[in-house]
Structure formats: structure tokens, C-alpha cells
Amino acid sequence: MIRLNKVSKTYRTDKVETLAVKDIDLHVKRGEFVAMMGPSGCGKSTLLNLIGLLDRPGAGSIEVDGVPITRYRDKQVAKLRNQTFGFIFQSFHLIPDLRVIDNVELPLLYRSISGTERRRLARAALEKVDLGARLDHYPNQLSGGQQQRVAIARAIVGEPQVLLADEPTGNLDSKMGAEVMDILLKLNSEGTTVVMVTHDELEARRVNRIVRVFDGQLVA
Ligand code: ADP
Ligand code: ADP
């Protein structure tokens, strides 16, 4: 599904150069649930951003379904990214002034879909995360776990093949974290490929495969 070949990424600021990931070979297969683990600053977020085509590698190549995207223009990459990936982050990034249903509809505004169809898809996505009864609430009327489930609904409303999650349970207590994990596992069992950064060994034990990152390299 996604293949990284000898991928490296260096960040450059005025004075500092950081080689954040180096020479990474990684194949994420269709249908897998991969947990990425490693100490803070080891390159997990950078890797996730590369896998999700949010960033381009400084060296090496990335293939999506066997097609190397190296020569794609930014616009083509953006189109492929929107068709392929949904993203979830540690902080939920919901828009506080919008109701739950409107937050979930947001990614569909850029597609040529009618208002009625948008609403139907958003409702279906919210039902998948067990929030079908909270459509008209505002984010601050929900618990952290519920807010993260709204963010998951927003990530899956466009029916992405791959869900990328950067510490999705990092701001949640263990009970709400487990609920979020239950939902990610359910989506995975229904066919969505998931790659998740986590610090939680118990969570990682629930998935197919653990990739361990240390100092910008895969160590196991
Ligand atoms: P992790 O997700 O494992 O905490 P990151 O991928 O965020 O690691 O960071 C890897 C390294 O790259 C760190 O040294 C971090 O400070 C650096 N880094 C990450 N993003 C940037 C950036 N936008 N600009 C400069 N350095 C960055
Ligand atoms: P995480 O908790 O997921 O590791 P961070 O708090 O390290 O995230 O990073 C948050 C954002 O800041 C990321 O988008 C990352 O790319 C960016 N970032 C991380 N380290 C640096 C850095 N040294 N300089 C600039 N941006 C950074």
C-alpha cells in the first residue's frame, strides 16, 4: 500500500540541521494496523507525515500502491493525499464554534457533493464512532474521548483507505483511550489500514505490528 524506500528527512532552520529520519525502509501493507513507538524526538511524527504525504522526503522515494510519487507536483500529491488518508492528532483540532455534525462535514466541502449527501455521510461517520446522538452538540459539551471520536468521524467521512493517528489517546485517560482504541480496531477490522504513534505498550499489544523507532531509524 505505502512503501518508503531509503527515506531520509532533514529539517533546516537558521542555524541547526536535524536529520530527523535516516534511510528508512518501511512497507505498510493494506489492512494492517501498525503501531509506531519510540522515545520523544526520535522521528515518529516525521515518519507519519512522510507516510501521509504531508511532507516530502529529502532523499529516497515513497510509493503509494506501487506508484512512486517523487515526480508528482504538489497539487497531484495533495489530491492523492486527500483521496487516500485521514488524519487524527493528539489534540482534537475541532472547531469550537461548529456543531459536531458541521465539524465532520468540513472535509467534504472541498468535494462536489450536495449538502444533503454531505449530511448523510457525516451522520453515517458519527454513527460509526457511536456518536449518532450528539450531532447538534458543540465540542466543549463533550468529553475528551467523545471529542476524539468526532475527530475520527471527520477523518473517515471521506472514506480514506488509510488512517494516520499521531498519539490519538495521548490526552485521554485510560478508559477514554481504550474506547478510542476500540473504534480504531473496529475500523481496521472493516478494512481501513491504520498507522498510529503511541507510547502505550498495552495499546500496541492490541495491533498487528509494532515498529520501533530510535534516533531516526527503525530498530525493530
Ligand atoms: P517524535 O514524533 O518521535 O517526537 P519528531 O518527528 O517530531 O519526533 O522529531 C524528530 C526530530 O526532528 C526532533 O529532533 C525534532 O526536534 C526535529 N523536528 C521535527 N519537526 C521539526 C521542524 N518542523 N523543524 C525543525 N526540526 C524539527
Ligand atoms: P509530538 O508530541 O507528536 O512529538 P511535537 O510537540 O514534538 O509533537 O511537535 C509538534 C509539531 O511541531 C510537529 O508538527 C513537529 O513537526 C513540529 N516540531 C517538532 N519539533 C520541532 C522543532 N525543533 N522545530 C520546529 N518545529 C518542530
TrEMBL record:
It holds the Pfam family ABC_tran. Keywords: Antibiotic resistance, ATP-binding, Cell membrane, Membrane, Nucleotide-binding, Transmembrane, Transmembrane helix, Transport. SUPFAM superfamilies: P-loop containing nucleoside triphosphate hydrolases. GO terms for biological process: response to antibiotic. InterPro entries: AAA+_ATPase, ABC_transporter-like_ATP-bd, ABC_transporter-like_CS, ABC_transpr_LolD-like, MacB-like_ATP-bd, P-loop_NTPase. Residues 2-219 form the ABC transporter domain. It comes from the Bacteria. The keyword Transmembrane applies. One of its GO terms (molecular function) is transmembrane transporter activity. Belongs to the ABC transporter superfamily. Macrolide exporter (TC 3.A.1.122) family. This is ABC transporter ATP-binding protein.
